[in-house]
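User: What would this chain look like folded?
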Amino acid sequence: MIFDKLFNKINSDGTLAMLQTDIHSHLIPGVDDGSQSYNTSIDCIYEMANLGYTKICLTPHFQTHKFKNDEDDILKRAEELRQVIADNKIEMELTVGGEYLVDSGFRNRMETNKFLKMNNQYLLIEFSFNQAILGVNELVFELQNLGHEVILAHPERYIYFHEHPEIPKSLKDQGVFFQSNINSFGGFYGKRTLKESYKYIDNGWTDFLGTDIHNHLYLEALVDTCKDKKFRKMLDTHSFLNNTI
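Assistant: Here's the prediction, encoded as C-alpha cells.
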C-alpha cells in the first residue's frame, strides 16, 4: 500500500483506535466527489485499519442537483466494495448511511422519508457552507418527529455559524448531534475552521468525530493530524460517541 511509509512515524499513541468507528466517509467509488476508484478506496480503508478503526460508515453525498444518488443503488455499490475489501483481506466492517444536503429538494425526501441512516437510527445532514437556511429549527423538529436522530456534519465549517453562534446553540438545544471533521483540528480547512473546531470542543458541543475522507490527500492530512500534540491531548481528555455506532 502506498501510504505504509506514513505509519512508520506513528506509535501506538498516534492512532484513532479509541473511536473504533468512522461515521463520515466518501469511499464508494464514483458516486460523488470522493474516491473515484477501488484502488483509492482500498488504500484508504487499509490505512484506516492501521490507524485503529474497525468500522467505517460509508456516507455518500445525496444532493438534489449535483449528486443524484439513489439509496438502493448505493446499497448495491456498498456490497460490491465489501467484496473487494474481503478479496484484499482487509479486516474492516463497512456499514452504510448517507450525507444529505438540506437543499431545495430536501423536503421532497422528507415526504418519502427514504433515507440511509447509520444503525437505522442516525441521519447525517449537511448545510450550505455559505448561506444560512431559513426555518432550520422547524425542519429539524419535523425530522425528529419522523423518528430520526439528527447528526449535523462538520458544523465548524459553516461560515455563518462563525458569526452567529446562536444558530448552532439553538440546534444543540434541540438535541441535534454534532460531528466535527478530524482534519479540521489539523488546519486542513483553514485557520478559522481550526479555531472553531476547538471552540466546539470547549463548549461541549462535539458528539462525534469523522474523517470525511475522500481520497489520498485527506488520508495524508489525517495522518498528520493524528500526530498533532494538541489534538492528541484533546482525544485524551474528551469522550465521543463513535463507538456506540
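The chain has one domain: 20-231. If you want, I can go into more detail on any region.
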